[in-house]
Specification:
The protein has 168 residues and is of the alpha+beta class. The protein is built from 3 helices and 7 strands; from the N terminus they run αβββββββαα. It has helices at 26-41, 127-140, 151-165; strands at 46-48, 58-62, 72-84, 87-93, 96-105, 108-114, 120-126. The structure holds nickel (II) ion (NI).
């Protein structure tokens, strides 16, 4: 397993709509394993392939950050089938270092996708897990959590990011 480089806000790949995975081949399996390693090392509770500069619809999620094997979810071509309720809580992102802001998300989602064996999986998630799925699937659509903030908040965040990343 290898740790991959996580790209940050401003990188063009993060703004792309990622392509579906057509074939769960050895390359995809290896990418997924490396993403898990990268997510655990970061540490983070979720990672989307575009964050490691691969524009494919693949995400990894682990609320236990490697503590509990059964919390690890690897999902290929994930889709939100249903969303209901609302929750507002602070969110961060490995690609937006140092920024934490409150984001409105559904409180419950039904997600479908495929595991690495090509088997279809359907998962109901609530609270933090629902939030992580929404956040990671947003990445696949070229959207960062800061894109969901009000224009004023976004301007403030942009200024803080300039300092954080030394970018303009
Ligand atoms: Ni993120």
């Amino acid at each position: 397993m290898a740790r991959l480089e996580i790209i940050t806000v401003g990188h063009p790949t993060l703004a792309l709509r990622a392509r579906p995975v057509e074939d769960i081949n050895q390359e995809i399996v290896e990418l997924a394993r490396n993403m898990v390693e990268t997510m655990h090392q970061a540490p983070g509770i979720g990672l989307a392939a575009p964050q490691v500069n691969v524009s494919l619809r693949l995400i990894t999620v682990d609320l236990s950050v490697g503590e509990n094997d059964k919390d690890l979810i690897i999902m290929v071509n994930p889709e939100i089938l249903e969303a209901e309720g609302e929750q507002v809580s602070e969110e961060g992102c490995l690609s937006v270092p140092g920024i934490y802001e409150k984001v409105l998300r559904p409180s419950r989602v039904l997600v479908s996708g495929y595991n690495l064996d090509g088997k279809e999986i359907k998962l109901e998630a609530s609270d933090l897990l629902a939030r992580v799925f929404c956040h990671e699937i947003d990445h696949l659509d070229g959207k960062l959590f800061v894109d969901r903030l009000s224009p004023l908040k976004r301007r403030l965040v942009r200024n803080r990011l300039k300092k954080e990343l030394g970018k303009t």
